[in-house]
């Protein structure tokens, strides 16, 4: 069965973006990028990967889920950031159709349960924090790119207190010279 994987950069103090939704303090250069490009090449926006000559055909994901604010980060320039994946954007706002993007106001839990029952690769939960909280019980794995920065406030990895306690075990981890650590946890 397909897994829902919350793969995301997170600050030392537990935020996936700063107080104004900014994430530009996260390191995007350094030795950790080679590890990301090798194992998670499919999480790089399609146009960026093409410009860098990165092959995305062997990735572990074929679907990406985003909240409306995460999707909006690339607008208006980029309307279909991950054309190599099936893209789902959860929003209650009406949107004009975009090739390769499914906008939906359906319950994210129902959508994920349906996707998990279909054939395919794993499902990438890209963000944001509210969507992750709604899907907390459905997350099978966390892959956290722990960054050596603090935001002080902002969008948390998960909203507090809106899900039942669950145990995860560490599957793998790697520390890089940049100070970035990539740690993976699977549900027990």
From TrEMBL:
What is the name listed in the Swiss-Prot or TrEMBL entry for this protein?
Riboflavin biosynthesis protein RibD
Q: Enumerate the Pfam families for this protein.
A: RibD_C
Bacterial bifunctional deaminase-reductase C-terminal domain location, by residue? 4-158
Q: Which PANTHER family match?
A: 2,5-DIAMINO-6-RIBOSYLAMINO-4(3H)-PYRIMIDINONE 5'-PHOSPHATE REDUCTASE, DIHYDROFOLATE REDUCTASE FAMILY PROTEIN (AFU_ORTHOLOGUE AFUA_8G06820)
Question: What are the recorded GO MF terms, alphabetically?
Answer: 5-amino-6-(5-phosphoribosylamino)uracil reductase activity
Q: GO biological process: any one?
A: riboflavin biosynthetic process
Under InterPro entries, the record lists: DHFR-like_dom_sf (IPR024072), RibDG_C (IPR002734), Riboflavin_Biosynth_HTPR (IPR050765)
